[in-house]
């Protein structure tokens, strides 16, 4: 992984086709939420498939926790769809046959002479694609467990939402005075409740425009 892809950096805003062949920009898929980005070897890898199944089981908690999940694979479109369907993953899978991400991040798995794949990584992203934590999953135990992701997202959410502790007296007074600027998603600078519900539903065609390749 490139040295500059570390905590506090902004992750590249890649544009790749999703499982419906629609170009998607990562920042559009993220919206104003937190994000878990999974860079996977592909459907042939049993380690990757097992990790994906764990994420599928955990996914309902991502939804209610205002956290988007996106997978990027070097598989072709047909294999990407098989991978997504066979694991019952409901989130977007982006496919990168040209190895744009692999090359740009310098994560080619050079020990695999049979497949031109990425070294698996799981990346926890704050708003605006800000890197919070990077997990190297070359070995299976390098990947985050769901309990570790829960802990990472708790800490990240604590730093993100100003109304994390609504028992705070100052916040209580602001609410009583009708000042909702520090409350998500009620504040003037926040998204609407309708848009939030669409994001939680994964209705990307309704809350994010189709990305144009740069």
From TrEMBL:
GO terms for molecular function: antioxidant activity; oxidoreductase activity. Gene3D superfamilies: Glutaredoxin (3.40.30.10). Residues 8-131 form the Alkyl hydroperoxide reductase subunit C/ Thiol specific antioxidant domain. Pfam families: AhpC-TSA. This is Alkyl hydroperoxide reductase/ Thiol specific antioxidant/ Mal allergen. SUPFAM superfamilies: Thioredoxin-like.
């Amino acid at each position: 992984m490139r040295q500059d892809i570390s905590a506090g950096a902004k992750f590249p805003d890649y544009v790749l086709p999703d499982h419906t062949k629609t170009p998607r920009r990562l920042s559009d898929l993220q919206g104003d939420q937190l994000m878990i980005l999974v860079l996977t070897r592909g459907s042939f890898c049993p380690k990757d498939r097992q990790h994906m199944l764990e994420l599928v089981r955990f996914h309902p908690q991502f939804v209610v926790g205002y956290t988007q999940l996106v997978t990027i694979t070097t598989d072709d479109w047909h294999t990407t769809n098989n991978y997504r369907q066979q694991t019952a993953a409901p989130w977007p899978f982006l496919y990168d046959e040209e190895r744009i991400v692999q090359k740009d991040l310098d994560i080619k798995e050079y020990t695999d002479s049979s497949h031109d794949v990425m070294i698996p990584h799981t990346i926890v992203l704050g708003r605006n694609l800000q890197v919070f934590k990077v997990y190297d999953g070359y070995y299976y135990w390098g990947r985050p467990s769901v309990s570790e992701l829960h802990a990472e997202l708790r800490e990240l959410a604590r730093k993100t939402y100003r109304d994390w502790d609504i028992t705070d007296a100052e916040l209580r007074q602001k609410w009583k005075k009708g000042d909702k600027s520090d409350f998500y998603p009620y504040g003037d600078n926040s998204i609407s409740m309708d848009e939030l519900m669409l994001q939680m539903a994964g209705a990307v065609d309704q809350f994010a425009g189709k990305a144009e390749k740069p």
